[in-house]
Amino acid sequence: xxxxxxxxxxxxxxxxxxxxxxxxxxxxxxxxxxxxxxxxxxxxxxxxxxxxxxxxxxxxxxxxxxxxxxxxxxxxxxxxxxxxxxxxxxxxxxxxxxxxxxxxxxxxxxxxxxxxxxxxxxxxxxxxxxxxxxxxxxxxxxxxxxxxxxxxxxxxxxxxxx
Length: 162
Hints:
By secondary structure, the protein is of the alpha+beta class.
């Protein structure tokens, strides 16, 4: 079984800009910051699955069309209480893409969808980070992509399959 997910890959220059934003938070937030090469927008986490990867690739092929995506603003999950995830928000409406992915794989849409780029899994926050949120609220990163890709991810390896 493989640990699979479907995501939108970020171009190198966008990943670098997000890494620069990560660096700004590292003095205030203790946690596991996401490596540059692992930054992405998850559309659907399939988990440890025996689903045939060829079937997934065939389902994703028609969804590989050009689109423009805007990433911007900082948030935390959950929005109330003790945060565990620091993320950059997605300004582009990806609900249609999410629905198409679920439909193509004949999967019921499993949850409310909030597209984002995880930048840190938070252990603790050392002081008020609201000023950092304000500083980065206007950072809008725009890029072109060609739709979703299939990724394999375990805790040691991370690779794009399609």
